[in-house]
Amino acid sequence: IQHKSLIAVSIIFHFLIFVLGVLGNGLVIWMTGFKMKKTVNTVWYLNLAVADFIFVAFLPFSATNLALDFHWPFGKFMCKLNSMIIILNMFASVYILVLISVDRCVSVVWPVWVQNNQNVRKASYVSLCVWVVALILSAPYFIFRDTEKVCDKILCFDNYALSDDYETPSAMTITRFLLGFVVPFTVIVSCYAVIIHRLRRNQTLTSQSSCPFKIIAAIIITFFLCWSPFNIMGLIEMANSMPEYSSEILDDIIIIGSPRATSLAFLNSCLNPLLYVFMGQDFKDKVRKSILNVLESAFKEEETRTHTYTKSVDTSQSRESSDLNTEV
To answer: Where is this region: Disordered (predicted)?
Structure first.
């Protein structure tokens, strides 16, 4: 009974994250991709939202797997892809956060250089490179995922027997921990240490940068709070797979902690849009106005479209000018 109730709670949790994630990230993609004027910042946030949207779009597969008591009915390819998407989301998201942090740091330290050299096209190319790196790092989770029929069930699991190297699981876990957590976290903390140091010396910059700084700081803190347990549990599982470290205590920690750590990591994919709305007044106003424009256009098509276009151009030009002067 307890096992079934935990599965039921997990399915509901998956469903809520799916709904919030699709709606929230879909809205951010619509705003940053189609509604707002293209800037370097909108490129970063668009890619962050795309990473989360792709992830939540695959949650129904995991929820179905839970509902069927870990029977996987979607075939081997989807088993591999579903596993890879989780890690792809983690790497893509954390490296985009690194880009945002480095971008803000450089903007504070060398503002003139940024104005002269930074543009949307370069930001798009860098974002593409991030996706390529994230795909490469998540590829092993596609390669080593497999399906096997056991009794009446088809299980989706990690099959390292495909490799002659039995150290592969440990190498994957350590790589994920270092390149997906330790290194990005170190770079991000270093960037914000420089930013805080500069802002303390310049009170004008502090007042101008307060809101954008708070939003990105909240996003970064939320990301690491959500993904830290997942990465730590990976290390614990790795240690428990080694005879010299294996113990019943670690077994219990994994049984209790692993599902919760995974759920917390999943939760991160729907939180960013909420942070934008609750912490970013400009984004909140833009969302409200855009939704109103959509409703108005349904009733006054031509008149409202003309008004909306003019208003959008004026607002976008004003925003671009403001971004160049105030964003950190």
So the answer is: 306-328
CATH T-level fold of 2-326: Rhopdopsin 7-helix transmembrane proteins (1.20.1070)
* DSSP string for residues in 298-321: HHSHHHHHHHHHHHHHHHHHHHHH
pLDDT in tens, the chain (328 residues): 566 787 888 899 999 999 999 998 998 898 888 888 888 888 998 999 999 999 999 999 999 998 998 899 999 999 999 999 999 999 999 999 999 999 988 988 888 888 888 899 999 999 999 999 999 999 999 999 999 999 889 999 988 875 555 578 889 999 999 999 999 999 999 998 888 888 777 766 555 555 567 777 888 899 999 999 999 999 999 888 888 888 889 888 988 888 889 889 999 999 988 887 666 656 556 666 665 454 344 333 333 333 433 344 344 444 444 443 444 4
CA separation for the pair 106, 92 (Å, rounded): 21
